[in-house]
Specification:
about 200 residues; 9 strands; SKP1/BTB/POZ_sf
Length: about 200
């Protein structure tokens, strides 16, 4: 169906910028697109919209995905569960400096995997950080002013550390805001996931 749309076999709608508009469920399209990229169906453990996703797969006529959704076997082994890590970056950037100057940045890692938080706290001691109460399941880094490369360096090292613990990126999103005349605020969010085995009490 997507191929037919873009070949011009079916009438399509575009917005003022020339982007294609498809009047379907945008949230579920994320899973459609990831399946087309990897040929694997990866869904959250608490996913509850299977019937809707089947309808989307049928609309786009993606036969392998239709077969995958018709398979009654569980997506994950029954003795496993999914662990999640959220990494967020909020940066205030000077609009007029060259190279880009970071006025202040805050990086926050949120997860219930306490061993990961402890590892980050022990391995990133050179950075100014604040370990939140363990009930909040967070460790935060706040620093600035600094140059753009220092901020990126910490973010890259954190992402590398998280992936080396067996996590893979599930999704990313970016949000741009302009609060003041002389600065921009940029928010980045990454979600990492990994499977873990349940431990019997």
């Amino acid at each position: 169906m997507l191929g037919a749309m873009f070949r011009g076999d079916f009438p399509t709608t575009r917005d003022a910028q020339g982007n294609y508009f498809i009047d379907r469920d945008g949230t579920l399209f994320r899973y459609i697109l990831n399946f087309l990229r990897t040929s694997e169906l990866t869904l959250p453990v608490d996913f509850t919209e299977m019937d809707l996703l089947r309808k989307e797969a049928d609309f786009y006529q993606i036969e392998p995905l239709i077969q995958c959704l018709s398979d009654p076997k569980p997506l994950y082994p029954l003795d496993t569960f999914e662990q999640v890590v959220e990494l967020s970056s909020t940066r205030k950037l000077s609009k007029y400096s060259n190279p880009v100057a970071v006025i202040i940045t805050q990086l926050t890692i949120t997860t219930k995997v306490h061993s990961l938080l402890e590892g980050i706290s022990n391995n990133f001691t050179k950075w100014n950080k604040h370990m939140m109460d363990t009930r909040d399941c967070q460790v935060s880094f706040t620093f600035g002013p600094c140059d753009h490369h220092q901020e990126v360096s910490l973010r890259v090292h954190l992402m590398d550390y998280i992936t080396k613990q067996g996590f893979t990126i599930r999704n990313t999103r970016v949000h741009h805001m302009s609060e003041r005349a002389n600065e921009n605020t940029v928010e980045h969010h990454w979600t990492f996931c990994r499977l873990a085995y349940k431990v019997e009490d």
